[in-house]
Amino acid sequence: MRRIDALSPDLPLFDVACTRRIEAAALAGLPPHTLMQRAGAAVARLALALAPHAQCIRIVVGPGNNGGDGLDAAIHLQHAGKRVEVLLAAEPAAADAIDALQRARAAGVAIDPARPTTLHSQDLAIDALLGIGARPVLDGPLLAAIESLAGLACPVLAVDLPSGLDADTGHMPGACVRADHVLSLLTLKPGLFTAHGRDRAAMVWLDTLGIDTSGESPQAWLGGAQAAAAPKRRHAQHKGSFGDVAVVGGAPGMTGAALLAARAAHAAGAGRVFVELLDAQAVTVDVLRPELMLRREWTARTEPDTFKQATVICGCGGGDAVRAALPRLLAHCARLVLDADALNVVASDEMLRQQVRLRAARGLATVITPHPLEAARLLGRGSVEVQSDRLSAAQALAAALDCVVVLKGSGTVLAAPGRTTRINVSGNASLATAGTGDVLAGWIGGHWAQRAEPDPIERAWQTAIHAVWLHGFAADEAALPVLRAGDLIEHMAAVAAR
After folding, report:
1. 216 and 262: one domain?
2. Are β-strands 124-128 and 156-159 bridged in parallel, bridged antiparallel, or unpaired?
3. Are 43 and 69 a contacting pair, CB within 8 Å?
4. 128 FRET partner, CA 20 to 30 A, in 26, 280, 355, 438?
5. pLDDT at position 241
């Protein structure tokens, strides 16, 4: 059993269909009820570790095998000397669950007691209602059971998934349990880590139940901590060794966005950082970071050969003014990060979309960093549709534009053609403030300029994985309710320097 956190190694994520296949293969080689008994024992072990002083442990049971896992856990907890009570939201219908209910009764577990115990803070409730067999819970006994868990003073441990959460997407089509801990059994499910998953599953644990899952290909990977950082610096190097970055953005009223991106690129280690502010009245020097080189009409005046050497970040605070710069940047830049308003302009212009798509065939790499609404505009969908299946949305964008996609949000999703989709495990809601996306775009550019992978797409892919993880981990380390974008840069630099 292992706890999943921002420092965990990369771990495979399996959707429901794949998990069912793994489960069926395991069942075929084991005596009857073995897998459920292993699951029940695992739930009981974690319950005892989480609530060693519990006077009572309540298990709320549904009709399927998730309920059976809870019933088997009840037997183990009863044997451990705990007062256990089982509330049946529905009579078990699955064969293994029926067997577990019979054994629980034989063990003396209190089933549907007439007067349920009042639970206190040291006690524990276990959600064993639905698991991966979740369906929209809109009314009836299952809704009542979910609502009863919400009103408890004690922690809630969910078996496999918080009941009501879609295992594949993290979408909540109806009522959903909010769990303090989730024990994911056999496999990790993508929905635990994106969309509503992280709000509904505060802490996730994994127990594979002794089953080898390597025979199946994962739908995605979780992690980012193991992504390689920029190469170590040697004494004989100079600023030209670490690449040039240019930021194009900062239309009137939004110059701060471009400056934040430029400062982040500089903090990430880029050798030189140029800034083309699209506000003609903007400052000509960043007094906080005078190292940045502010240049008027940088895009128009730069030779194509220079574009091939530079890493360009376009769109941060750019407004519609970035439209004029985009054709030249798309045509010549070897490494291009498109963010914010650059994405909105591309979404509104089919010719620019085609230019983005054709870049990969010419050996030019592109990273786009949309938030859900920007992704929706690029896909011609609603943002609700994007959020209801974030992995599919990111994959669709990567296929449509032939680029690396960083779909920001809770559980940022990274996708690229020919690569297994990834969900980033780091980060928190302190990043939900103005400018943090500009910082991410800038750090991607600054980090990208220094990497040396020969394949341009792999270079972009590894850059995005590392930058996204570092961005989130710095927020985790800061441990603040709200993290200002300028401060985030310093936190990222401190983490990167370790």
Report:
1. no
2. parallel
3. yes
4. 26
5. 67
Query: Across the chain, what does the average pLDDT equal?
Result: 96
CB 377 within 8 A of CB 347: yes
Which tokens sit at 476?
């985790």
Contact 451, 232 (CB under 8 A): no
Distances (CA, A) of 160 to 66, 157, 183, 488: 8, 9, 5, 34
How far apart CA 342 and CA 152 sit, in angstroms, is 47
Q: Which helix (H) or strand (E) holds 99?
A: helix 95-106
Residue ranges making up the domain that contains 437: 239-496
Nearest to 366 by CA among 412, 398, 320: 398
Q: In the listed set 164, 191, 221, which residue is the last one of a domain according to the structure?
A: 221
Of 121, 129, 169, which is closest to residue 147 (Cα–Cα)?
Answer: 129
Answer yes or no: do 66 and 33 share one domain: yes
Listed residue (400, 359, 368) closest to 381, CA to CA: 400
pLDDT digits (tens, 9 = 90+) for 228-272: 887 777 887 877 768 999 999 999 999 999 999 999 999 999 999
User: CATH number, domain at 57?
Assistant: 3.40.50.10260
**Strand-pair category, 2-4 with 201-207:** antiparallel
d(CA 284, CA 142): 62
Domain membership flag for residue 361 = yes
CA geometry: angle 410, 416, 420, nearest 5 deg: 80
Q: What pLDDT, in 10s, does the model give residues 279-320?
A: 999 989 999 999 999 999 999 999 988 888 999 999 999 999
Q: How far apart are CA 229 and CA 448, in angstroms?
A: 10
Assign 373 to helix, strand or coil.
helix
Here the CATH number for the domain that contains residue 454 is 3.40.1190.20
Q: How many domains does the chain have?
A: 2
CB 148 within 8 A of CB 92: no
Q: Round to whole Å and give the CA distance between 83 and 68.
A: 19
